[in-house]
Every structure is written in C-alpha cells, then in structure tokens.
Design a protein that fits this description.
Layout (H helix, E strand, L loop, with lengths): L2 H25 L3 E3 L18 E3 L5 E5 L3 E6 L5 E8 L7 E14 L8 E8 L11 E5 L1 E13 L6 E9 L2 E16 L1 H22 L9 H19 L2 H22 L14 H8 L2 H20 L5 H18 L10 H22 L16
Antiparallel strand pairs: 1-11, 2-5, 3-4, 4-11, 5-10, 6-9, 6-11, 7-8, 7-10
Helix pairs in contact: 1-2, 1-7, 2-7, 3-6, 4-5, 6-7, 6-8, 7-8
Length: about 375
C-alpha cells in the first residue's frame, strides 16, 4: 500500500469512528424517567401558586398568555427570581431539571454567573450553597425558544433544595415555559454501550498516536506528550461534580496566590471592596482556559515528536482528538458536548502550531507541506 493510501485509510477509519460516536450522542437515550413530576403547578396552570417570587428595583415577574413566565429587569443591581422549595431527594438519586426558555437582550452582570439562569439550588443545614453542578441553563444575549435540561445526582448533606429561574444581577428579558423536575435512571442500553465506546476509543487513540513515538522523539518530549494527553483525557472523563469542585478549588488557589504576592497592589479605596484581580478570577471560566492551554501544548508537542509527519496529518490528529474528547463527554455523568468548547480546543491547536513555527521556522523540518505526501 502506498504512503498516500495509508494516510487516506487511516483518516477514513478515524472519521468513521468519530461519526459513529457523533451519531450515538444524538440518538442514544441516556436517561429514562422513573418518577412523577416533583414540582407543584409546574406548568403555571394555577397562576403562581406554590412558587415564591422576588421582583426588585426595576424588575418584574409576570405570567403571560399561554402560561408563559416572563422575568424582566432594566439594571444589573438586583436578582429577579422565582423559585419553588422542595424536600431533598435520596442520596445518589438522579434528577432531571428542564424547561423551555427564551431570552432577549440579556446583559451579564458583574460576575461570570450573573446571567439568565435555570438552576437546582442545593444547600447544607447551615444554608450554605453546596459546590455542586447546578445550572440547567445560563444565558446572555438573545436566543429563541429551546428546551434546556440537565441531570443532577443528589449528594450527601443536602438539607434544602429549590428549583429557581432568575435574572441574576443581569438586565434583559427571560421567558420560561413548563419547568419540570423528575427522577430518572440511566438507560440500560446506555449502560451497556458506554464501556464499549471507551474501549473502542482507547484502541483508536493508541493506534492514532503510535507513529509519534516511533521516530525517537526523545524521552522528555514523549513523556511530556503522554502526560498532556493523559490530562486531556482525565478532564474529559471527570464527572461534572469533580470538575466543578476542581474549578472552585483552582479559583480559590489563584485568589490566594494573588493576595499573597499582592499582584496588583491591594490599595482599595473602600474597606471590604473586592480586589479587581479577585473579581477577574471569579468571572473567568478557568475550564475554558484549561481547554485552550492543554490543546496548545499538546499540539506543540505533536509537532516536536512528529518531525517526519506531514503538518496536515498532525492537525487532523489533534482536531480529531478535540472532537473525540468533546463527544465522549456525552458518556460522562453530568457532562454535555459543546461546540463552543470544541472551537476553543481548535484555537489552542492552531496556537501551538503557530508557536512551533515561530520558534523553529529557521530549522529544517522534513515535512512542512500541508498536503498529504505523494505516492511512493
């Protein structure tokens, strides 16, 4: 088989595996409902009975025709909220929170989570919010009607919980229709297919990246590549609870470091005012930065290890890894594939290529061409 045919065959296998995984994420049902609706008056057929509201300032909460809830606010100084308190459910039970939502001209408030939100708010016996996944929807800007849903696993020590729709210190308009909360279980078919998908991709990824370690890339480069690849896969397979806790801890560490080294000089005019650095860290989605950096470093290392591999092949391999890790989140508890995250990964890959080119453009590399090699 000629070299070009080998490349085409290899790429065909990878795209076929990626396509099959993509189809599974769209047609395989993850959860089945096993319980009754937990919300009282979930469709607002009895006006706002059983719901509590907090309109404030220039905000308003109205029920429009068709039993559609409308939240509006003209400023970012207040929380405009409607919620329903519920007793905590059994530990490890799965709850699906869903609603049809439309937003218009929503402007994010001072912090990153100050948006139009649908959340499952869970608190401990002291009333403190638990560091657990809670967003079913977090929106800004303008978007038409769409069904948003997310599944949450009940954790120990949850003493209070509530379903809440709100404009959290954000201006604009939010419409909500048919919010629901039901107990679900994992589909038996999903349970059977999930390990097979992971096993398949373990073999595919090992086969895909094997050529990068057969050209004697050096111990440091090959070890670093394996470590970064392992970090990418660990981040992909981490359940949502672990990811949320890790990001929260990461932000606390960064804020602590900033305060200790006095990064910007904490000369605040008013006592108790938050330092700009702290505000920036709290607003920043460090998970997105992690996506970008990991794939940037990984791309750079692939170019370092694959000195005889065409640039087009390296870019394709890195891009396929980005798509694969995003799709595999469908098979990870509490995670959902996102096109936006895939775009961030691609940005990191191209940045890694750019940095490699700038650093080593004057050194000979056997294959800078973007096209596949010619037949031999």
């Amino acid at each position: 088989m000629t070299r070009s045919r080998k490349h085409i065959f290899r790429l065909t296998i990878l795209i076929a595996a990626l396509t099959a995984t993509f189809l599974l994420t769209h047609f395989l049902q993850r959860y089945v409902e096993i319980g009754q609706e937990l919300l009282t008056n979930h469709d607002f057929s009895s006006n706002l009975e059983a719901w509590k509201t907090r309109p404030a300032g220039t905000g308003a909460i109205n029920l429009e025709s068709g039993n559609i809830l409308h939240l509006s606010s003209e400023d970012t100084d207040n929380f405009i909220s409607i919620w329903q308190d519920l007793p905590p459910q059994p530990v490890d039970s799965l709850l699906k929170l869903s609603a049809y939502i439309k937003v218009q001209d929503v402007v994010q408030g001072p912090k990153g989570w100050h948006k139009a939100r649908l959340i499952l708010d869970r608190r401990d016996s002291s009333g403190k919010g638990q560091k657990l996944p809670h967003h079913a929807a977090s929106l800004d800007g303008t978007a038409g009607w769409k069904l948003y849903e997310e599944v949450f696993r009940m954790a120990p020590d949850t003493a209070k919980m509530s379903v809440k729709a709100e404009l959290a210190r954000s201006s604009g308009n939010m419409w909500v229709r048919k919010p629901g909360l039901k107990q679900v279980s994992i589909s038996p078919l999903f349970t059977a297919i999930r390990p097979l998908v992971f096993i398949l991709w373990a073999f595919v990824l090992a086969w895909m990246f094997h050529p990068y370690f057969t050209g004697k890339p050096g111990v440091i480069a090959s070890t670093a590549t394996l470590l970064v690849l392992s970090a990418i896969l660990a981040g992909t397979l981490a359940p949502a609870v672990s990811k949320t806790q890790l990001q929260g801890t990461g932000k606390e560490v960064l804020i602590s470091i900033g305060s200790k080294i006095d990064m910007i000089g904490k000369n605040l005019e008013e006592p108790g005012e938050e330092h700009p650095y702290d505000v920036y860290i709290k607003r920043t989605e460090i998970g997105k930065i992690g996506h970008f950096l990991l794939f940037g470093v990984f791309s750079f290392l692939l170019f370092t290890c694959g000195k005889t591999i065409p640039v087009a092949t390296i870019l394709a391999d890195a891009g396929i890894l980005a798509g694969t890790t995003e799709l595999l989140q469908f098979f990870t508890e509490g995670r959902t594939p996102k096109l936006y995250d895939f775009g961030i990964d691609l940005g990191g890959i191209l940045t890694g290529l750019l940095i490699f080119f700038l650093l080593f453009r004057n050194k000979r590399r056997s294959n800078w061409q973007l096209e596949l090699p010619a037949d031999i």
